[in-house]
Write a structure and sequence with these properties.
Farnesyl Diphosphate Synthase, about 0% strand, 12 helices, single chain, globular, mainly alpha
């Protein structure tokens, strides 16, 4: 498969934009695992997209995800100074540049989907709007900022919206490579992935900093044994959904298993 990271670097380097802004975009995209981009790329190929189109679609989702991280780190949001072991965009380039960088990244995500050349590009653009917008990731971000977590159900809803909706987008765009509409099952896969991925992250954060008690996270509502059982249950459900819809479910599962099967027990 084509290298999404290289494609992103090449496209951003040739933008007609101020050098510092371009550097902030490149900084925001560097060092990540490209989980969402590669999952989108693999799903697109599984549903029949050619290599170039699959790369463009994956890069679009990765740009949208990077926007969410840049804005999430801002002083008005989580006020984080480090991400992936290096300064966040606002810490390195300033808050105003970080805001503009996030805006630029989501704009590029929509642009690249729209000009991908795929006949279902308009449906893909709409899927990004649904996943990223006020009923999706942004809703989860709002809950994270303003709604205290008091129950496991509230925690799972937060993870499903803030993280799961973009995972669902990866599968929805893949399915849209062959069909004019993505099954609701693709968004359900995203919901399960988001909950599983973030609960694992909650346990990792808890183990690394057990003094972190400002907000309730997964260890407040479940044990490591519960987490392991959930990982296995969700993985089975996801594979079932893929077998019902995807021409090559095993290929897609190769990118999903690392998300759901991180071992903590």
């Amino acid at each position: 498969m084509s290298d999404i990271g290289r494609w992103l670097d090449e496209k951003i380097n040739v933008l007609s934009a101020p050098d510092t802004l371009k550097q902030s975009l490149l900084w925001s995209l560097s060092g990540g695992k490209l989980l969402r981009g590669r999952l989108t790329q693999c799903a697109a190929k599984a549903w029949g997209a050619d290599d170039h189109t699959a790369c463009v679609l994956g890069a679009s989702v990765e740009a949208a995800h990077a926007c969410s991280l840049v804005h999430d780190d801002l002083p008005a949001m989580d006020n984080d100074l480090l991400r992936r072991g290096k300064p966040t965009v606002h810490a390195k380039f300033g808050e105003a540049t970080a805001i503009l960088a996030g805006d630029a990244l989501i704009s590029l995500a929509y642009e690249w989907l729209a000009i991908s050349g795929h006949p279902h590009a308009s449906q893909m653009v709409a899927a990004l709007g649904y996943a990223f917008g006020p009923s999706g990731m942004i809703s989860g971000q709002y809950r994270d900022l303003f709604e205290p977590i008091n129950t496991k159900a509230m925690l799972f809803r937060l993870h499903a919206e803030k993280t799961g909706r973009l995972f669902g987008l990866c599968l929805a765009i893949g399915m849209l490579c062959e069909h004019t509409e993505a099954s609701q099952d693709m968004w359900e896969i995203g919901r399960l992935l988001g909950i599983c991925y973030q609960c694992q992250d909650d346990f990792a954060d808890f183990e690394s900093d057990k003094s972190h008690v400002q907000v309730k996270t997964a260890p407040d509502f479940m044990s490591l044994e519960d987490l392991a059982a959930m990982q296995n249950d969700y993985t089975d459900k996801i594979f079932g959904y893929l077998k019902s819809h995807c021409p090559d479910p095993e290929a897609v599962m190769q990118h999903i298993d690392p998300i759901t099967q991180v071992a903590y027990v």
